[in-house]
Specification:
This protein has 106 residues and is of the alpha+beta class. It has a domain at 23-94: Ybab, Chain: A (2-Layer Sandwich). It has helices at 3-24, 61-94; strands at residues 28-32, 38-43, 48-53. A hairpin with a 4-residue loop joins β2 (38-43) and β3 (48-53). The longest helix is centred in the C-terminal third of the chain and has 34 residues, at 61-94. 8% of the residues are buried. This is Nucleoid-associated protein B0A62_08470.
Length: 106
């Protein structure tokens, strides 16, 4: 593949990655505490869309803080996994193989 062809392929891949990022704004990740008292929804791009808190958690600030930390971290981890999987798939599918660069996608 010539240099111009490679540059065109890189530009095309970059556009597909941007398109994938936009699509991931529409993918929602739902997570809740084990007892269901706290629920969060965020996008696969890790933007919080909603938080629902049961009234019983409003009585104990420390407990609410703990619930938020645990539940948000679990949701962010799930969203990160989805995000990374999708972006890796686009990059691997379309990237031209440049000698010495193949280790970047393992």
């Amino acid at each position: 593949m010539d240099l111009m062809g490679m540059m065109g392929k890189l530009k095309e891949t970059q556009q597909k990655i941007e398109d994938t990022k936009k699509r991931l704004d529409m993918v929602l990740i739902d997570e809740q505490s084990a007892d269901g008292l706290l629920k969060v929804t965020l996008t696969a791009n890790r933007k919080i869309k909603s938080i629902t808190i049961d009234d019983s958690l409003l009585e104990d600030k420390e407990q609410l803080e703990d619930y938020l930390i645990v539940t948000l971290n679990k949701a962010i981890e799930k969203a990160t996994d989805v995000n990374q999987t999708e972006l890796d798939a686009v990059a691997k599918m379309d990237m031209p193989m440049i000698p010495g660069m193949d280790n970047l996608f393992k």
